[in-house]
Amino acid sequence: xxxxxxxxxxxxxxxxxxxxxxxxxxxxxxxxxxxxxxxxxxxxxxxxxxxxxxxxxxxxxxxxxxxxxxxxxxxxxxxxxxxxxxxxxxxxxxxxxxxxxxxxxxxxxxxxxxxxxxxxxxxxxxxxxxxxxxxxxxxxxxxxxxxxxxxxxxxxxxxxxxxxxxxxxxxxxxxxxxxxxxxxxxxxxxxxxxxxxxxxxxxxxxxxxxxxxxxxxxxxxxxxxxxxxxxxxxxxxxxxxxxxxxxxxxxxxxxxx
Length: 257
Ligand SMILES: [Zn+2]
Ligand SMILES: [Zn+2]
Hints:
alpha+beta; 6 helices; binds zinc ion
């Protein structure tokens, strides 16, 4: 099966079938990425789907880096996941045999793929984007170091019992701890939503919420400390857009940013 046929069978599309790395179905609100299967890009229930080093590429026999048009499109698709609640699906891809392409691994060196879509959770970390198995998220959520829809999306797991430490490969989402610490310090250990001011009751009581989504930025000006109730509101309340706007204005104006 051709890749185009496979993607189109899900009603997804892209700007260009030759250079695109990712695909979108705006009606059904999901995006599709290839997920690398090699060991070096597959750790503990997650597969690499995008690396910021793929923004440019040095073609074989050249010395000049060339912009990769698939990259900005992939970023646009990922921000739909991070900010607009689009679902993420991946299909397995393997690298072409060494020597076929120029230096470096990126989606232009895909050797083969399997026409099979799996739902995933997006993880952004150190310039790389990963597709995380949903089962791993459900079993090992650790609210105090993660912020995406998964951190507040599983009420049946009783996340306020946060004492059971994740075990084994489930210890994922190691966001920038410095950002988290800075945000908590600036917050005065209080929920930063206007009119709330819940105090820190115990360690890990406050979440650090990424207002623009984790894929966009992991910076203090994009983060606020929120109590669990306000954090849920920021993701799920009907007024979440207005709330996030207010939180963002607040975070940007915080002293000594
Ligand atoms: Zn959040
Ligand atoms: Zn609050």
